[in-house]
Amino acid sequence: MANHGVGGGLGGGLGGGLGDGLGGGDVIDQGEPAKGVGDAVDVSEDVIWKSRAIEAEEKLAACELRVGELESELSSANEAIVSTQRRGEIERELTAARAVDLETACLLTEATISEMDDPDVAVAVREIKARKPFLFSCSTKGSSGGAVMSAQLGSDGGNGLGKMASSARSSGDRNELLRYLRARRGG
Q1: Residue 136: beta bridge partners?
Q2: What values do phi and psi take at 136, rounded to 5?
Q3: Could you read off the pLDDT of 18-35 as tens digits, one per residue?
Q4: For residue 168, which of 155, 156, 158, 181 has the smallest C-alpha distance?
């Protein structure tokens, strides 16, 4: 009896202890996954996909912002190109119209063009020339300044003066330029 009591005590003690240790006496089948394990895998995949989606949306927002910045840079570059082309066209027209002060005439022409409904550089230059003729040189070829200079060149023979002018031009020396100007003036 003593053996039976010890055996029964051990069996009962081990059985009860083992049953409690495996999850309160529940039996787990080896072929099927536990009920809570599959749900944990699904939840973690959902979290991963949600975080990837959030990351992709953030990248998309950053890309959209960069595209907006690049579009504004492109439009400002296009405006600069148009402005530079217009400035060149204005300068060509003013040079052809023999403008004396090119910078002032350019500014006035740009202001006139900005007021026009249909911008036309040639019309704007003609308008400036009519309103402010002092900005343009005379259209006649023989001006009084040219006649005076030719008389001074004739009195000196023109040869020495021409050499002094070319020397001053080629050297870039101020003293030679002053000598030439004094000789041209006749003093």
Answers
A1: 99
A2: -125, 145
A3: 444 444 444 444 555 445
A4: 181
